[in-house]
Amino acid sequence: VTQPVDHLDDDLLSAFVDDQLTPDERFQVQAHLGTCSACQDGVDEFRSVAALLRRLPEVEPPRDFSLRPRLLVDPPNVIRLRRWYGVTRASAASLAAVFVLLSVSTLYIDSQPKSTGTAGFSKPQVASAPVTAPQNAQPEPQNAQPAPQNAQPAPSSAPVAARAAAPAAAPVASPAPATGDAATRPGLANPEPLDQQAAAATSQRALTTPVPTPQPTAVRLPFTTAVPNATVDSAAPLRTAALVVGLLAVVTLLATLVVRHRLQHTASHL
Amino acid sequence: VQPEAGTLEHVLQAAQHGDVAAFNNLIQIFQRQVFNVCYRTLGNADDAADAAQDALLNAFRGLKTFNGPAAGLRAWLLRVAVNTCYDQLRRRQRRPTESLDALASPDPDQQASAAERVTDPAPGPEEHSLSAETALHIQQAIDRLPPDQRLTVILCDVQGLSYDEAAQVMSVELGTIKSRLSRARAQLRVALTEKGELPARSGRLHERSS
């Protein structure tokens, strides 16, 4: 038997087994097979594989697949996904709303002191009172006995002039504290160095305060020093809460998108 | 089991209008084949049952998109099943550990018993039913085919569909079915020869030349 160089295409041989060729193709294959044992072997092999596969037994379904009403409403995984979608979407929306609310109130509080200047007048004073009071209170008890007239203006100047009063009052009160300071510092008997000491103390205090110039009037100072402190104290928790809620809103929004994607994927196969 | 064409047409119309009972009648006709396609494609009964149920449910939901004659219903239902199987296979690919484990370390006893359990209830009136071991070897060889070839060989050789119907089911040209089928058969021949289920080529050539 002579072996032709050109063998037939596998697709032809395979389809020939199933008799799925056009009459022309079939004739061509039949003519070729008569002269080519290799291609005949190929046909036999395709035929034997197909025959073996055809003998694979049918499998009995493990259950009836009729659609029960419960199944029809929604498959369980879709029900679960739908529920998750509702939950995540609702929480994303409410968290976003809370975030907006918090942001707006933070901004409002930030802008509030400028608009309500007079209303804030008493507040900063209360806030700054403890800062100045101990400084005034310490010399006062000592001054109270030797100089009663000095004790009277002290309480009045403390609440009103508050912090700013200190530098201004320092030269005025210097004669009186002189005795007090002399008592606290026994080593220093000379009034001249005491004045310098008091001046040094005031200048030191001026350095520690955030206000660069102790000159301005007593009314203005409490504002510039106390107001920023008050603002930061009340708005900081709000700002933190807004940040946290905002992050949560973003996370739940992402979760919502993921769940929605899955839902769309599982709900439609067609 | 197959009702006459006129009845089938009526049942189909009712089902298309949302009559679940009518669709359940159609399920009674086709569920066995739908399940078997899924079973051979996915390689195990649990996944196949899930896929078949999903496919039939989706088929009911999308039944209005089927506008051909009732004669094309089988191909259409099998197409829904094939798509469901593709989804399932894609999902497996995305988390390959499970399927790879199943492939890499096949528990012969467990798989053999599973194959037996599956073959036993349907001994088949055929003159010669395959041994459980041979059925297992064939299934393992099918499992290793690429999805397109796998489904084509299942539809044409295992289920006995015509090339035309298989082309409808897979939504491809007839030529694609031919080439996929021949490639699948060639690959299966190699695998099954290795397992000793088919005679080796050289032996046959030798016989022939002597």
Quaternary organisation of the protein chains = heterodimer
- The portion of residues forming beta strands of chain B comes to under 5%
- What gross morphology of chain B would you assign? elongated
General shape of chain A: elongated
The secondary-structure element order of chain A is HHHHHHHHHHHH
Largest sheet of chain B: none
Largest interface: A-B, 38 and 67 residues
Give the distance, in angstroms, between the N- and C-terminal Cα atoms of chain A. Answer: 55 Å
Number of helices of chain B: 11
* DSSP strand tally of chain A: 0
Mean pLDDT of chain B: 82
Please bin the fraction of helical residues of chain B. Answer: over 70%
Contiguous runs where pLDDT drops below 50 for at least 5 residues of chain B: 99-127, 202-210
Terminus-to-terminus distance of chain B: 52 Å
The average pLDDT of chain A is: 68
Pattern of helices and strands of chain B: HHHHHHHHHHH
Q: Indicate the structural class of chain A.
A: mainly alpha
C-alpha-based Rg of chain B, rounded: 19 Å
- The overall strand count of chain B is 0
What would your notes on this structure say?
The complex is a heterodimer of chains A (about 270) and B (about 210). By secondary structure, chain A is an all-alpha fold. Chain A has twelve helices and no strands. Chain A has helices at about 10-15, 25-35, 35-55, 70-75, 75-115, 120-135, 140-145, 150, 155-175, 175-185, 190-210, 220-265. In chain A, α10 (about 175-185) crosses α11. With about 210 residues, chain B is mainly alpha-helical. Chain B is built from eleven helices and no strands. Chain B has helices at about 5-15, 20-40, 45-60, 75-95, 95-105, 110-120, 130-145, 145-160, 165-170, 175-195, 200-210. The termini of chain B are far apart. At the A-B interface, α1, α3 and α4 of A face α2, α3, α4, α7 and α8 of B.
